[in-house]
Amino acid sequence: MFSAYAIAYAAALLTAGRFADVFGRKRSFIRGVLWFSFGSLLCGFAPTAWFLIAARVVQAFGGAQLSPASLALVLPEFPVEKRTQAIAIWGTSGGLAAALGPSIGGVLVDLLGWRSLFFVNIPFTLLTVLLGRKILRESKDPNAERKVDYPSAVLGFSGVALIVLGISQSEVWGWASGTTIAALIAGIVLCAAFARRCHSAANPILDLSLFRLRFVVAANVAGVLFSMGFIGMWLLNTFWLQAVWGYGVATSGLATFPGPASAAFVAPFAGKYADRFGHSRVLFVGALLLAGGTFGLNATIPDSPAYLTNYLPWMLITGVGVGLSISTLSSSATAFLKPTQFAMGSALNNTFRQVGTALGAALSLAIAAPTLSRVETARSAGQSVLDVSKTEIHGAWLMNAFIYLSAGIAMLAIFKRPTESQMDDARGT
User: Distance (Å, rounded) from C-alpha 242 to C-alpha 31?
Assistant: First the structure.
């Protein structure tokens, strides 16, 4: 179910971003929220697993439309000099959602069952539509023809979908299996064809000139690595809380709350720091905190629950790292773009992050798999998991810490502040 959403969401982002720039960002945002609401309703009433998977795909298509459009609606409201701070504040809402989601979700599952996770979305999405229609101002690329290049849309959608499919299913199929290799090769070939088509098409889905901008390249390379480390850390932490410490779903959600809460608290300040000290330096500090927190957690976490002394402090440190990193990545990728490229640039950055998320989840789970198997076997036999070797999960934590460091180093090495000419383009002058 997770793979179905991730694949559809990642595959649809680039096309959705271009549609938002061409046909209107408010229009795309409202449509995306409605699609997401409809998909949530279908998920809640799903009678079978296959129906639920199909409903999650519908939900993902809605998410792919609203994500790049939401940021693209914010950017035109601010001069280029204030966009980094605006994106930081925009990112705070995502941090609050990440803080509240696991906690509320765990309680809902325990009290009302898994279907409540989908039904709870509907009143919020409908309220968003009502407020959005009244408050949001429409914006688009004024120079774009009201059409897009559908062959490039098909190639981009299919290529990204196959790459994410191959990565996501590698744990089931095996990295060396013919199916995984075939999916990855086919996806890479289609993405290459997509790039070639975008180079020659009159109305391409993706403007390849974005890759000539050092700040865009840096944000996307670092974004892939950040997402790899983040999803890996989250999966491993959740596994440890539930399988090793024996926390329930609701309890583990509450235990996770301080991390994203501290990220939401710090995120509004990240924009000011990025403007003052530079995006690459702020991201590097965030990466150091994330790596240090993950190293510390890995080195000190015991097999028996010790939340206040051996878990909470590291969650606060990594939460601050996330707060400094995530909005900085978004502003690096989009704040200095031409107004005509806002949704496209946001969609490109989100696509890279989704590929990183799929890769990080696959790698972490593949490395930790022997530990997962031993813990499951011990629990099935009614035995304590305290004496089960957890070497592999510690190795996966270490891998994610080094991935975080790599994200910070990549940002320092690649990022280059926009030139005056690029700033003029960002102002639309």
Answer: 37
